[in-house]
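Continuing the series of single-chain predictions for the mutant panel. This is the parent chain; the variants come on the following pages.
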Amino acid sequence: CTFYELPYAWTGMYWQGMFVSPLYYAQFFAEAWMFEYCSAVEPFAWGALSGAEVAELYEAHIEIMAFGSNHWNARAYGSQGLAYLVGALTQAATGASFGAGMAFAAPSDKLVALFVHDTNQLYVRELLGLSWIAHGWEGNAASTGGALVFELLVDDDVLDAAGGGGAQHYVRVSYVVASPRQQREATPLSLAAPPAEAVLVVPKCGAALCPLETFQRVALDALCVDCVEEPLASAVRALDAQLTAGATCDAGLATWQLALIVAGCATFAAAFAAAVTFRLLRHPKNERYSEQSASV
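Parent structure:
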């Protein structure tokens, strides 16, 4: 019996990639061997593989986890975690509590840590459209000891809309993890020997430093508030209403937008008129009548 002869069966279990298959059983070994390597077990992978080969095979596990953290699972099971992130960032920026749903963290806290499974990190990755490659790991690996980091940065020199002094808040996202070799050798992490860090860009932000309000809007659009528990869900709905009310799009179309629409309509009308004129020139009335008489 080989891996290729093993059957496919739908299970719906996220940690199985939603189904069992040859790929699932193969990644089971790859994951176990990676754990052995990172834990300094000797011999790892039955002594048959190098560390680089184990890391390459580990990609099978990453693929299975990607199946399990698909869009629908991410919305159902990852919205709560993303709501926590939005709440922590929002109350840190405003200095006011985000409500009872964030009672475990104060606005003045400099660090809020959520200890989660790899699937929880991958749900957030799916919801925000993130991708990363960390040194020593294959792409988008939610690795042992890895951290998905959301930092709130402040620029005190930005002028507000009224021209006065103000502060602009930005969100910086990164993925930080020790390399497989660092974990195997239990390397003390420091500034001199830091873990790998991949700075991430939220696609709908388009920059490494995402304005907080933009990040809030992107996150709220991505999550499903019906999958967020109360009382956090009420705070999320309130923030959504606040962001919607503060948007400028309800003030009507800008002048340049109206001009663009008018120009587009004029161009379409001119093209349509030219097409009709060309057809009439090719098929004048007397020619149609003559053709009709001839056919009779």
